[in-house]
Amino acid sequence: MLVGFMADIPFIVSSRFIRTFDDYGRGSAGRWAQHDIIGGKPVLEFIGPDVEKISFSMQLRADQGINPAKELEKLRKLRDTGQYFPLVIGGKLITDNMWVIESLDESVSFWGKFGSIMSAKVSVTLKEYAGGMKVL
Questions:
Q1: Non-local CB neighbours of 128 within 8 Å, separated by 6+ positions
Q2: Above 90 in pLDDT, residue 2?
Q3: Which of these, 11, 52, 71, 111, is most buried using a 10 Å CB contact count?
Q4: In whole angstroms, what is the distance from residue 17 CA to residue 5 CA?
């Protein structure tokens, strides 16, 4: 069953294959300018919304039909090339804008023969790309 996708990475769950996410979080803020007033409190001016951020973690396990080393390499390439992509979860776009990988934090839990990665956890932080490319 397809849960969603980002770029060419599907989030999928089946009897032979699991690539999905945990600990999903989403946040943003408003952008405010502060104007100092002599003898008074500063005045705030709303400039507009800031870009959104999404974070989640993925458990990449060889025993769940995933090659953790290849998956990590795909994620690093998306981050290092600055590629922007749509993010879809539950059949719905998450904002009309594209997304980029802002950061990845990886930890390897188990190693196999000859140093192959058997299980790794990666924490992904996405940032909304409001650079003019909209998903139509």
A1: 28, 51, 52, 53, 95, 97, 98, 99
A2: no
A3: 11
A4: 15
Burial letters 6-39, b for 16+ CB under 10 A, else e: bbeeebeeeeeebbebeeeeeeeeeeeeeeeeee
DSSP structural state of residue 63? G
- Summarised one tens digit per residue, pLDDT across range 56-70 is 999 999 998 899 999
CATH number of 2-134: 2.40.30.200
Which pair of structure tokens corresponds to residue 11? 């989030």
Q: State pTM to two decimals.
A: 0.86
Domain positions in the chain are 2-134
Torsion 105-110-113-115 (CA) sign: positive
* pLDDT tens-place string over residues 6-42: 999 999 888 888 888 999 999 999 999 999 999 999 9
* Tokens representing residue 132 in the block: 């003019």
* 15 phi and psi angles, rounded to 5 deg: -70, -20
Residue 14 is predicted with a pLDDT of 84
